[in-house]
């Protein structure tokens, strides 16, 4: 009589051989070829505006940025970020769109530089940077200058 084993021994099967065949008749893939994807001019991809309408929107944002609304330039750069990011594709396919978006980027950069320079000059420089003209430029002493603070 055979005694039952407490733990059965697993049977092992030899691993199957893997055969790799190389077709020497076809050339190896070219690493410079890439898969072409559909490029969308806006950040919302296929849900955004068409390529024809995108030029009109970019032009409007660009021109209204000159009407003391320079944050539209920032919005233009954000909304058309793929145009800034993929410069080679859009410089050939839609140069007009790229021109408006690059112009908006330059305009907003200049505006942000001028605004931050002005803010830092007034916030940290004051009379040391500007000199005696400081008293005429600041707005917190207008009531004292015109005698409007005495009745309060």
Write structural notes for this entry.
- The protein is mainly α and 152 residues long.
- The chain has a domain at 45-125.
- The chain is built from 8 helices and no strands.
- It has helices at residues 51-65, 71-79, 81-85, 87-93, 95-125, 127-130, 134-137, 142-145.
- α2 (71-79) crosses α5 (95-125) and α4 (87-93) crosses α5.
- The radius of gyration is 34 Å and the shape is elongated.
- Mean pLDDT is 75; it is low at 18-23.
- It comes from Lithospermum erythrorhizon (Purple gromwell).
- InterPro entries: Gamma_Secretase_Asp_P_PEN2 (IPR019379).
- Residues 1-33 are annotated as: Disordered.
Outline of this structure?
α2 (71-79) crosses α5 (95-125). 52% of the residues lie in helices and 0% in strands.
Beta-strand residue percentage: under 5%
Largest sheet: none
Output the helix-strand order.
Answer: HHHHHHHH
List how many beta strands DSSP finds.
0
How many angstroms does the end-to-end distance come to?
Answer: 115 Å
Task: Return the structural class.
Answer: mainly alpha
Give the low-pLDDT segments. Answer: 18-23
Global morphology: elongated
Instruction: Report the total helices.
Output: 8
Helix share bin: 40-55%
Average pLDDT number: 75
Work out the radius of gyration: 34 Å
Subcellular location: Membrane
InterPro entries: Gamma_Secretase_Asp_P_PEN2
Keywords: Membrane, Notch signaling pathway, Transmembrane, Transmembrane helix
Protein name: Gamma-secretase subunit PEN-2
């Amino acid at each position: 009589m055979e005694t039952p084993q407490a733990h059965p021994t697993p049977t092992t099967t030899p691993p199957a051989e893997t055969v790799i065949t190389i077709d020497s008749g076809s050339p190896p893939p070219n690493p410079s070829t890439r898969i072409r994807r559909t490029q969308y001019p806006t950040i919302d991809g296929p849900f955004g505006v068409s390529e024809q309408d995108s030029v009109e929107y970019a032009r409007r944002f660009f021109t209204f940025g000159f009407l003391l609304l320079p944050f539209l330039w920032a919005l233009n750069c954000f909304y058309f970020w793929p145009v800034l990011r993929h410069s080679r594709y859009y410089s050939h396919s839609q140069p007009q769109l790229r021109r408006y978006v690059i112009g908006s980027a330059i305009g907003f950069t200049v505006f942000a530089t001028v605004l931050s320079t002005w803010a830092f000059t007034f916030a940290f420089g004051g009379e040391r940077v500007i000199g005696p003209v400081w008293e005429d430029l600041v707005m917190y002493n207008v009531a004292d200058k015109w005698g409007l603070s005495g009745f309060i």
